[in-house]
Amino acid sequence: MPKSSPSRPTAQPARQRRKEARPQELLAAALEFFVEKGFAATRAEEVAARAGVSKGTLYLYYPSKEELFKAVVRESLAVHIAEGHEVVAQHRGSVADLLRFVMTEWWRRVGQGAAGGICKIMIAEARNFPELAQFYVDEVIAPSHRLLGSVLQRGMDSGEFRPLPLAETVQVLIAPVLQQTLFLSAFGACHMPTPWPEPMAVLEVQMDLMLEGLLQRPPSG
């Protein structure tokens, strides 16, 4: 009996591939509009048009503008925080190196990109949309504080870092990076010359200063 030829995977129809890609296209278009115009001024039909679909199609995936915004936040910010927790859990070695890596990666993945504009949106519009503000706290702020807190606590427990108040130290870590993110989202979009240095250079100085303050020093003889 002749051997049957191995079956080949059936190519996915173009329409099916388009349908599966559609949520990502909608989220990408929504991120652009939210960062450019803010939450309140963004209209669903604009997002749909940029993604090449009808407004009705958008609502099949995301039933309201609020749900669309939440999906953008999860895709652009929350997923990176979750990945950060995995990196921390798997890391073995210097906690100072881990902290530097976590801070630098956050800037590369979020702070210097379009997703960093979400921070500016929430600061500007949280008061008018308290339900979204609470969502942002639960999905972004609290998990990011837990992430940095876990790194600091590991350093303190191992003796690599000196004991410091955890919540306050997390705030000191976050504040300069958040300031850089807000500056880039606000003034960077204007393409104007500014007296500020490159954000990555600022982050490197911040980490040097922070680690000088965090590292446990042997008692002087």
TrEMBL record:
Pfam families: TetR_C_11, TetR_N
Keyword annotations of the record: DNA-binding, Transcription, Transcription regulation
GO molecular function annotation: DNA-binding transcription factor activity; transcription cis-regulatory region binding
DNA-binding region: 43-62
Top-level division of the source organism's lineage: Bacteria
Residue ranges annotated for the HTH tetR-type domain, each copy included: 20-80
Start and end residues of each stretch annotated as Disordered: 1-22
Database matches in PROSITE patterns: HTH_TETR_2
Biased composition (Polar residues): 1-10
InterPro entries registered for this protein in UniProt: Homeodomain-like_sf (IPR009057), HTH-type_TetR-like_transc_reg (IPR050109), HTH_TetR (IPR001647), Tet_transcr_reg_TetR-rel_C_sf (IPR036271), TetR_C (IPR011075)
Protein name: TetR family transcriptional regulator
Organism per entry: Roseateles asaccharophilus
Taxonomic placement: Bacteria, Pseudomonadati, Pseudomonadota, Betaproteobacteria, Burkholderiales
